[in-house]
């Protein structure tokens, strides 16, 4: 999916690429939709739950948010799957997966802002804003990467984003 979008998820070419038969494919998946569902579940597990598990090891909440941003942004830069999925959000399975993953991400980041002392409603708004910033960064990373900060500016960029997101009136 990451290489060619949903159109690339076809049984025969995929089986051939894996050196398997079409019949062996159907041993593992009932149909193409089941394969898509499994791929979307794997994406959610690796790129959401796996990342959350990784950053939870950091005891300091502010550093946890920074680590989350750094991990998410570098993952999105290295893997076009997120942008590919956003481009195919009209597909029912993709739409459902994006909704689940986005709700989970917003809820998790809202928990982090709540842990910093923000009231629940404000923590949720800031969580939504943080996920929006991430998605915008991912889109720019594929559409116009030259406008994003380079490696030498990346740390300052993350610090500034975190300062803005955690600023108190």
Automatic annotation (TrEMBL):
InterPro entries: Homeodomain-like_sf, HTH_TetR. One of its GO terms (molecular function) is DNA binding. This is TetR family transcriptional regulator. It comes from Streptomyces silvensis. SUPFAM superfamilies: Homeodomain-like (SSF46689). It holds the Pfam family TetR_N. PANTHER family: HTH-TYPE TRANSCRIPTIONAL REGULATOR YJDC, TRANSCRIPTIONAL REGULATORY PROTEIN. Residues 10-29 bind DNA. Keywords: DNA-binding, Transcription, Transcription regulation. Residues 1-47 form the HTH tetR-type domain.
